[in-house]
Amino acid sequence: MSANSRLTIAAHALAWISLYQRQGNEVATSEQIASSANTNPVVIRRLLGELRRAGLVESRRGAGAGWSLARGLESMTLLDVYEAVEPGPLFGMHRATPDQGCTVGYGIQPAMRGIYDGIEETLRRELARVTLEDVLRDVLAAPR
Amino acid sequence: MSANSRLTIAAHALAWISLYQRQGNEVATSEQIASSANTNPVVIRRLLGELRRAGLVESRRGAGAGWSLARGLESMTLLDVYEAVEPGPLFGMHRATPDQGCTVGYGIQPAMRGIYDGIEETLRRELARVTLEDVLRDVLAAPR
DNA sequence: CCTGGTCGCAACATTTGCTGTTACGACTGA
DNA sequence: TCAGTCGTAACAGCAAATGTTGCGACCAGG
Q1: How far off is chain A from B89, nearest CA to CA, in Å?
Q2: pLDDT exceeds cutoff 60 at B52
Q3: Which listed residue, A33, A74, A142, B100, has the most CB atoms within 10 A of its CB?
């Protein structure tokens, strides 16, 4: 499975913004978050842009611009973030249509689709059980 | 998430071999399976090679060569296939190590790892609930 | 002992998606 | 007006999956 880091980086950004705001700051810049996540500010802006479309964060432009949370971390789940930043389904079908004249080729896609749908639904339920508040708590619990 | 088709193609191949054997044939060739799945025989051989290492299929060489099941479909689960053909974890961490001097950068990876571990365990349980016999049954149930 | 058919595997091309980088216009508080 | 930041496009780099070709290894059957 292709290990992409989008969900991890998005969670990182949200936790960072929240902690920064708890320290009394209004907004966080993509520059600051990128520095913490050790990546490029544009990568952060792209990800946060998707989170904004999902209503999880807000951005301010102009001078003193930056990012802030649209609501509390306790009301955001990993599922919200997952759906905002992960486009496709977990498992893919054949790249090219299988032989429709063959019994297996004909029936395999509906069969797998049904099975995959059930599994992805379970995955979603699991993701929905974890809030970003949980994530931040775990982050702060790391031993020094 | 990158939609890879390895699990789907592997299930397709197993179902095809089983059905072919139920029709009285000894072994199936990668050529035949590739034709049904509309892909290249080498792709099939690569995948089946991984399934063989996992003890799910056997191959015969020489004349009249081909592939056969190592055991019944009812004793193979999608988890067996998944572990045989999917290398990495479901979600990836940061590509570059986050800033260890930052509270979030320091704690994020252990936190996410713990969360991801639990989720992947649930995914495995779901995959283990589906046997390849279930898959073949669903395939044959497709309406013509 | 040959031969034809198939696997095993290496090597490389192609495709796809994610990530990194640069550039520049848009926006706005000071 | 200006400095700082977002928004976004464009492109390069990289990694993994997939597709393709080639060829040696293997072996049942003649």
Answers
A1: 6
A2: yes
A3: A33
Q: Measured between alpha carbons, how far is B75 from B130 in angstroms, rounded to an integer?
A: 10
- Residue pairs between chains A and B whose CB atoms are closer than 8 Å: 196
Q: Is the distance from CB of B41 to CB of B31 less than 8 angstroms? A: yes
> How many whole angstroms separate alpha carbon B132 and alpha carbon B79?
10
Residue B126: CB atoms within 10 A of its CB come to 19
Nearest to A76 by CA among A128, A4, A8, A3: A128
**Distance between the two ends of chain A, CA-based, in angstroms?**
32
- A13-23, pLDDT tens digit by residue? 999 999 999 99
* Helix or strand run (H / E) with residue B142: none
Interface test with A, best of B108, B129, B130, B135 (most A CBs within 10 A): B108
In sequence order, what E strands does chain B have?
57-60, 66-69
Residue B90 has pLDDT above 50, yes or no: yes
Q: What pLDDT does residue B4 have?
A: 87
Q: How far is B14 from chain A (nearest CA, A)?
A: 10
H or E segment at A84?
Answer: helix A78-85
| Backbone torsions φ then ψ of A131, nearest 5 degrees | -95, 165
The pLDDT of B3-8, averaged and rounded, is 89
CB contact, 8 Å: B120 with chain A? no
- pLDDT for the residue numbered B99: 98
Burial of B84 (0-12, 13-18, 19+ CB in 10 A): buried
Contact B48, B17 (CB under 8 A): no
Look at strands B57-60 and B66-69 and give their pairing.
antiparallel
